[in-house]
Design goal:
The chain is mainly β and about 425 residues long. Helices cover about 0% and strands about 40% of the residues. β15 and β16 form a beta hairpin. The protein is elongated and about 80 Å long.
């Protein structure tokens, strides 16, 4: 997927120690939910395996609606009054991978319950949940909620017993007094991401210590709302987010596509200098004789060892040349080695994945008939981090006598 070189916005809620960048998200689509009678989104939850989205209304007592996760079209609705007949649902969660799963809801007045998709109460989770603002299941099947009784009073993450509603674990989020509006678990890594009131970014939180680990910008959201919800799609490739009331449209669910690769070094001059001062554009390799701005290596698909769809795509090379895609186990990152007309960003145990001919300066691996990247690269079943780069011939006299150049380098985190 094409990488957006996003600059991470300043994190107003973070502690003084710098946090690393988390996920990389790019706007993908907007789902129009204006005809569904919602005053805004209080929370939302993605249902597997059918790929549907459930939305609880903000600020009012009303039905939870089910919509098509690709179009926003209304599919069904459920009356949640069996949880509480007088208060609307403000936090909503659905277990992973269960056909026709039950809905777990928590209301404004502190009631919790588990209902069927026809609204029948299955489990009463009690009335001790006042201040619950969001909910989600982790990949192991544990139910977690965000809790904050007052705005500005901080956030506690709670693990909830799905049979009794009892609080099994409490984790106070460190370094902020902001209240969370929701949380979501990345299905590929199990990491917990929290969305705070008034923020346009997510914060990864350690569920043992409560420490903030990383921040993720949600591009295009102003972030001024006090309510809202978010959830990942089943494979973690998409993130759905909506907020209320705030400056955002209350009748739109924003869909973001996630990049699974990260540029580790390029030829722009921000790190090491290209061999002849032939700097390329940001995110690309060093410039070549065709003045393309340097070769750009990117990915499409999903780096999952069990269902690998990852494709390495390189563009910006000479129109008709050969290109070698290779993988390594380490990288010098900001201190790459000059190599030919470019910079070598990938080291360690190197695996040659495949050599391709370019068409209009572009090539990709794998093509039809090729083994997958994970198989050719020997990625272990438990997953791993690997580094990728493309080497290509550029025979025209340009920089060094070597007659070759390289793309930028990428880091890819493989999931089991």
């Amino acid at each position: 997927m094409l990488r957006s070189m996003l600059t991470l916005a300043a994190c107003a809620l973070c502690s003084s120690s710098a946090l690393t960048q988390g996920l990389v998200l790019t706007p993908h689509a907007q789902l129009d939910i204006s005809g569904h009678g919602l005053s805004g989104v209080g929370d939302l939850a993605f249902e597997l395996p059918l790929g549907r989205l459930w939305i609880a209304p903000w600020g009012t007592f009303g039905p939870i609606v089910e919509v098509n996760a690709s179009t926003g079209a209304l599919l069904s609705s459920v009356d949640p009054s069996a949880i509480s007949p007088t208060s609307g649902v403000t936090a909503l969660a659905i277990p992973f991978g269960i056909t026709s799963p039950h809905l777990f809801g928590f209301t404004v007045n502190g009631h919790g319950g588990r209902i069927t998709q026809s609204g029948v109460l299955v489990t009463n989770l009690g009335s001790g949940h006042f201040g619950t603002t969001g909910a989600d299941f982790d990949p192991a099947g544990n139910l977690w909620t965000t809790h904050g009784s007052t705005s500005g009073g901080g956030t506690t993450l709670r693990r909830i017993d799905t049979s009794t509603g009892a609080v099994l674990q409490s984790v106070v989020v460190q370094g902020t007094t902001l209240r969370a509006r929701d949380l979501a678990f990345d299905p590929t890594s199990g990491r917990c991401y929290v969305w705070f009131e008034g923020a346009n970014h997510l914060v990864e939180v350690n569920l043992t210590t409560g420490a903030q680990v990383s921040t993720t910008l949600i591009p295009g959201l102003q972030g001024g709302g006090t309510s809202g919800g978010l959830d990942f799609s089943g494979n973690g490739e998409l993130l759905y987010a909506a907020e209320a009331p705030g400056p955002e449209l209350v009748d739109v669910v924003h869909v973001f596509r996630r990049d699974f690769d990260e540029t580790i070094c390029d030829g722009s001059g921000s790190g090491a200098t290209c061999p002849c001062g032939n700097a390329g554009l940001v995110g690309r390799g060093c410039e070549n004789s065709f003045a393309t701005g340097g070769a750009l290596l990117d990915t499409t698909g999903f780096p999952d060892v069990s269902t690998d769809t990852l494709t390495l795509v390189c563009s910006g090379m000479p129109p008709n040349t050969s290109c070698l895609f290779f993988q390594g186990t380490t990288t010098p990152e900001s201190l790459p080695t000059p190599f030919g007309d470019g910079l070598r960003c990938v080291t360690g145990i190197v695996t040659r994945l495949g050599t391709k001919s370019t068409t209009a300066g572009a090539a990709s691996y794998p093509a039809a008939g090729d083994v997958s990247v994970s198989v050719r690269g020997g990625i272990p079943a438990v997953g791993a981090t690997r580094f990728y780069q493309a080497w290509y011939r550029n025979a025209a006299p340009f920089c060094t006598p070597s007659g070759f150049n390289l793309s930028n380098g990428l880091r890819v985190r493989w999931h089991p």
